[in-house]
Amino acid sequence: MKIKLFDIAHGRSGDKGDAANVGIIAYDKKGYEILQKYLTVDAVKKHFEGICLGDVERFELPNLLALNFLLHNTLGGGGTVSLKLDAQGKTLAAALLRMELEVN
Amino acid sequence: MKDKIRIASGQGFWGDLITAPIQQVSHGEVDYLVMDYLAEVTMSILQKQKNKNPQLGYAKDIPELMKIILPGCKKKNIKIITNGGGVNPLACAEAVLKVAADLSVKNLKIGVVLGDDIRENIDEIIEKGCPLKNMETGESIITVKDKLLSANVYFGAFPIVEALKRGADIVITGRTTDTGLTLAPMIYEFGWNEIDYDLLSAGTIAGHILECGAQSTGGNFLGDWQSVSNFAEIGFPICEAYPSGEFVITKHHELGGKVSVDTVSEQLLYEIGNPKEYITPDCVADFTTIHLSEEGENRVRVSGIKGYPETEFFKVSCSYADGYSAFGSLTYSWPQALTKAEAADQILRKRLENLGLLFDEIRSEYVGYNSCHGPLAKIINEDDINEIQLRVAVRSHDFKTVERFGKEIAPLILTGPPSVTGFAGGRPKPNEVVAYWPALLPKTFVTPRVEILEI
């Protein structure tokens, strides 16, 4: 079964140097279980191909039904150096919510 | 000891809603108003202002704001804490004292936190054995020393606590952590100690929730954003803090916005790294211990927070000049808006190449198509696209190269693809690129100082 991440979660993103932080929060426990199982480092890395040029780190916050991702080498040199319109990665949480997960 | 205090956030960055702090102190009871003015880029801007005029270098909004709120805050005993002193907190305090004198406000004490500015001490610090290595690249600061614009240590809550203990009604700091502004009144009012790490972490997390203003009360909320009421008069967050370390995030009733587990969760996830190690000068807070619960309309209780001892280092943020950048844009309309914008980009690049201009980077984005989500953007049918803005940005260490680029945008209107508009405001001008140099400094190298000015 295909699930749109946007239907089960929300989130917020921002910058940490040249890395973007993307926090994804499930609306309920069942949603968090899906995030925990299917929203892996590899899945996120693949989704952001061509955007995230470095490693992806993943952290779990079960207390907030949330995952936090650090996407390294993503913002074109970071906040003030970057030539990107979205130099601070503000829209990357929405970009991740575009993902569809194949859930069994 | 008070059994609770209410701390209101009045500003999330320099440039935030000017009316927010005024509303925070006039729409209901609060004990403290805390205002964060400093993003990383702000310090270098302020340093440039101070270089031109030694009396500047702080957030000029502060004296203007004080003209409006100072008499009321003094009367109601609302204390004000801000890091808007920037690179010149003493001048900021003097400007506020002048406002107080003009308004005949008496018995006002302003605490000023000093000592964070280490720009003049870099050589001494290197000599004493700290090369201020870049936390990301490992290089010594010597490589950029001649281009440094600013260098500041992030202090924590305790220098502010000292100012409060010495009777300050207003505390103005330079580079203090955003979280320290909110933690400090809790330490002061509840008598917390330097080793109460769970309590310090609770206050730190409260500070993280407040530091971006309305981002915890419905602003930039990616959940059900249309459920947020009255954005036009959005209420900024208020932290109702208790001596136990528990606190409630709320807002003034009559203002707009929304405080829910979802809005607070989004702010908690904002700009964090490893959630188990949120490092500040005061403690290391563990975000995986936070418990949120809705205890009423627009009231979220935060409890259960644990934390650990602080590290032996201060974080240092330096900025340095790193070349120039500029960007220009043109808008193409239907039909074939994207195809035309892409063709214009190719023509522009060919002309830049023919001129022999070499850039460190050229970046083209298509606003209305892929400027936010890059390769994730999918065009289904170009005929449905009404218009596309071509945005081209360049970066180089040579000023003239960037300046010359600025002269190549407007000509595309008469010498390129059709139905193009949107070139107004003159040629793109080169901006100085300010780059960051994050480093660590052993805490033994610097000592915060507190001065009290009074009238």
Write down the overall geometry of chain B.
globular
**How many structural units, i.e. domains of chain B?**
2
Q: What is the beta-strand fraction of chain A?
A: 25-35%
Biggest sheet: strand arrangement of chain B: 11-12-8-7-1-2-3-6-4-19
For the largest interface in this structure, which chains are involved and how many residues does each contribute? A-B, 46 and 50 residues
- In terms of quaternary structure, the protein is heterodimer
Count the E strands of chain A.
6
Termini Cα gap of chain B: 27 Å
Succession of helices and strands of chain A: EHEEHHEEHE
Strand element count of chain B: 19
Can you tell me the overall shape of chain A? Answer: elongated
Q: Count of helices of chain B?
A: 12
Can you describe this structure?
The complex is a heterodimer of chains A (104) and B (455). By secondary structure, chain A is α+β, with helices and mostly antiparallel strands. Helices cover 26% and strands 33% of the residues of chain A. Chain A is elongated. The mean pLDDT of chain A is 96. By secondary structure, chain B is of the alpha+beta class. Chain B folds into two domains: 5-116 and 154-311, no CATH class; 321-437, Alpha-Beta Plaits, CATH 3.30.70. Helices cover 28% and strands 25% of the residues of chain B. Chain B is built from twelve helices and 19 strands. A ten-stranded mixed β-sheet of chain B has the order 11-12-8-7-1-2-3-6-4-19, with helices on both faces. In chain B, strands 5, 14, 15, 16, 17 and 18 form a six-stranded antiparallel β-sheet that branches. The longest helix of chain B has 18 residues, at 337-354. The mean pLDDT of chain B is 96. Chains A and B meet through strand 2, strand 3, strand 4, strand 5 and helix 4 of A and helix 9, strand 14, strand 15, strand 16 and strand 18 of B.
Could you outline the blueprint of secondary structure elements for this entry?
The complex is a heterodimer of chains A (104) and B (455).
Chain A: E1 2-4, H1 5-8, E2 9-16, E3 19-26, H2 29-38, H3 41-47, E4 56-61, E5 66-71, H4 92-97, E6 100-102
Antiparallel strand pairs in A: 1-6, 2-3, 3-5, 4-5
Chain B: E1 5-11, H1 20-26, E2 32-35, H2 40-52, H3 61-76, E3 79-82, H4 89-102, E4 109-114, H5 122-127, E5 148-153, H6 158-165, E6 170-173, H7 178-190, H8 197-210, E7 238-241, E8 247-250, H9 261-268, E9 278-279, E10 284-286, E11 291-296, E12 299-303, E13 306-308, E14 313-333, H10 337-354, E15 361-367, E16 387-396, H11 399-405, H12 412-415, E17 420-421, E18 431-442, E19 449-454
Parallel strand pairs in B: 1-2, 2-3, 3-6, 4-6
Antiparallel strand pairs in B: 1-7, 4-19, 5-14, 7-8, 8-12, 9-10, 10-13, 11-12, 14-16, 14-17, 14-18, 15-16
